[in-house]
Amino acid sequence: MGNGNRPTPEFWREAVRLVLTSGRTRREITEDLGIGLSTLTQWLSRERDAGEPAEASVNLHAELKRLRRENAVLKQERDILKKAGSLLRERRKSMSFAFIEAEKASVPIHRMCRVLDVSQSGFFAWHDRPACQRRRQDMVHPAHIRTVFSLSNGTCGGPRMHRDLIDEGHQIGRHRTARLMRENGLVARQKRRFKRTTDSEHALPVAPNLIAQDFQAEQPDRKWGADISYIWTAEGWLYPAVVLVLFSRRVVGWATNDRLKRDLAVEALRRALITRNPAPGLVHHSDRGSKYRSVDYQALLRKRGILISMSGRGNCYDNSMVETFFKTIKSKLIWPVAWQTRAQAENAIARYIDGFHNPARRHSSLGFESPIAFERKAREVS
Asked: Can you give the pTM of this predicted structure?
């Protein structure tokens, strides 16, 4: 504004320029500049009557359209680079062509070819060329990979997936398996928080450590491991207890409860005894928690002729086999989900143990066999 609140020519030309180029409404501009809507309309009319400025406004409109068009192209190219980042690192033309084929409905082919640094003629030659055997296999393998990954609840990594493909008769290498999983966005879940579940501050009897970190067994039901863990839900804590066969990593007994009490451990043990009916001489190993040192629990073990073994004080490595099981089930199944109810978490645990861990999960320490398959082969050999 000039002296006496009279607008200078520069001021009203700037106001007109904002109307023509900013994309904002006239009312918004008048509120920002502190002028009336009728005043701004008069200035626009004066600008049009001037002739030469009108031509300048036409040029401004054309320039604005050009800049917006260029901005849309740049945004599209940026999106291409985001989606195809891994392709640019690997520098494989066949992968770039496959990406172009998948995205051609939404992005012009010539633009993707330029961004990915491949020729259009090369793409069309690839497109019209009959698929080679390797390419056909790369279209078949992912279907199997996605099925196994889904059944494992997103926990199956590259080595286990590769072994599963080999066992199904697919001729595929480990690195190729990892590449196909990566291209399909299949990444195994990883880990996370702590809650104390072992109460060793009591006067109950302590058994000697018969295992002494020797978790190897020559046959099933010679060594068992037991432990209790915790899961947070919107309703509060849920406590799962398991009994594990150290020979095969198979869960033979498990139970859950909303309270950390001795009945929880006893129920898991009872289920294990019913399922396996082990012969006397089995070594049962646990930590020094009061649930495992209770009179009821130890009486149930002694009644079946089972030897009792307990970890050293504060030494988590003495029961690392079962600790590893809980770490796996939490990182792969529990932590990625916000559980609303205890019943939801319990059902998920049941599906994981009975539907995946025991019959299907491949353990590297078992030669990438599942616990059930490993025990079956052991029985066949003996």
From this structure: 0.52
